[in-house]
UniProtKB/TrEMBL annotation:
<comment type="function">
    <text>Interacts with phosphorylated C-terminal heptapeptide repeat domain (CTD) of the largest RNA polymerase II subunit POLR2A, and participates in dephosphorylation of the CTD.</text>
</comment>
<feature type="domain" description="CID">
    <location>
        <begin position="1"/>
        <end position="114"/>
    </location>
</feature>
<dbReference type="GO" id="GO:0031124">
    <property type="term" value="P:mRNA 3'-end processing"/>
</dbReference>
<dbReference type="InterPro" id="IPR008942">
    <property type="entry name" value="ENTH_VHS"/>
</dbReference>
<keyword id="KW-0597">Phosphoprotein</keyword>
<dbReference type="InterPro" id="IPR006569">
    <property type="entry name" value="CID_dom"/>
</dbReference>
<comment type="similarity">
    <text>Belongs to the UPF0400 (RTT103) family.</text>
</comment>
<dbReference type="GO" id="GO:0008420">
    <property type="term" value="F:RNA polymerase II CTD heptapeptide repeat phosphatase activity"/>
</dbReference>
<keyword id="KW-0007">Acetylation</keyword>
<dbReference type="InterPro" id="IPR032337">
    <property type="entry name" value="RPRD1A/B_C"/>
</dbReference>
<protein>
    <recommendedName>
        <fullName>Regulation of nuclear pre-mRNA domain-containing protein</fullName>
    </recommendedName>
</protein>
<dbReference type="Pfam" id="PF16566">
    <property type="entry name" value="CREPT"/>
</dbReference>
<comment type="subunit">
    <text>Associates with the RNA polymerase II complex.</text>
</comment>
<dbReference type="GO" id="GO:0000993">
    <property type="term" value="F:RNA polymerase II complex binding"/>
</dbReference>
<dbReference type="Pfam" id="PF04818">
    <property type="entry name" value="CID"/>
</dbReference>
């Protein structure tokens, strides 16, 4: 509802605010930093997701320019940033936010001619099964380094970012209470409020994007840990069986 009120006077107005190359591309000015452009896409995602049922026109309005935005941001960022963009794209694909032709254009914009190196949970399971079958010793489990890295990454996850939590808790009441709009008396106060709202939107959009990435990471880690544990149990059972057979021959 908040996004609807903010954007309804001109659904495409937000595109101009986050322009990359002109008035029809949603990523900020050409001189914006890559991380800030990523945040603008998080903001676009937030609007699209929250208005999907109540304001589907926003999803349609973003469609013509979102591909160019993905292409522009991915061309100026590193692999880490592209990974975040890939997560946003995965969410849109899973929730059928856009038609397949738009999703394919987004994939092309993000990955180019290369196929996206996306490891689904099923692929992770297959990979670890293969590693498990060739496992020589339980002391050398498959994907150990990946698990350690994933656990370390979660130490800096959004849900544990106390500094951002404090910034959100300290947002001025003016950006939280719609009723305070009546107190705008002149252009200067209106512009001041507009700046506060824009800053708050950027902060929340970035945080929501990080939370979405964290949820994705935790789901993947949970699945990897489950497969890792199963693999270890299978290896242990195999060793115990060999030990039993050996003991039988020694009797």
């Amino acid at each position: 509802a908040t996004h609807s009120r903010a954007c309804r006077p001109c659904p495409c107005g937000s595109f101009t605010t986050v322009n990359t190359r002109g008035p029809s591309s949603p990523c900020g000015s050409g001189s914006s930093k890559p991380n800030r452009k990523l945040t603008f896409l998080y903001l676009a995602n937030d609007v699209i997701q929250n208005s999907k049922r109540k304001g589907p026109e926003f999803t349609k309005d973003f469609a013509p320019v979102i591909v160019e935005a993905f292409k522009h941001v991915s061309s100026e960022t590193d692999e880490s940033c592209k990974k975040h963009l890939g997560r946003v794209l995965s969410i849109w694909e899973e929730r059928s936010v856009y038609e397949n032709d738009v999703l394919e254009q987004l994939k092309q914009a993000l990955y180019g001619d290369k196929k996206p190196r996306k490891r689904t949970y099923e692929q992770i399971k297959v990979d670890e099964n293969e590693n498990c079958s060739s496992l020589g010793s339980p002391s050398e489990p498959p994907q150990t380094l990946d698990l350690v890295r994933a656990l370390q990454d979660l130490e800096n996850a959004a849900s544990g970012d106390a500094a951002v939590h404090q910034r959100i808790a300290s947002l001025p009441v003016e950006v939280q209470e719609v009723s305070l709009l009546d107190k705008i008396t002149d252009k200067e106060s209106g512009e001041r409020l507009s700046k506060m709202v824009e800053d708050a939107c950027m902060l929340l959009a970035d945080y929501n994007g990080r939370l979405a990435a964290e949820i994705d990471d935790r789901k993947q880690l949970t699945r990897m840990l489950a497969d890792f544990l199963r693999c270890q149990k299978e290896a242990l059972a195999e060793k115990e069986h060999k030990l039993e057979v050996r003991n039988l021959f020694l009797l």
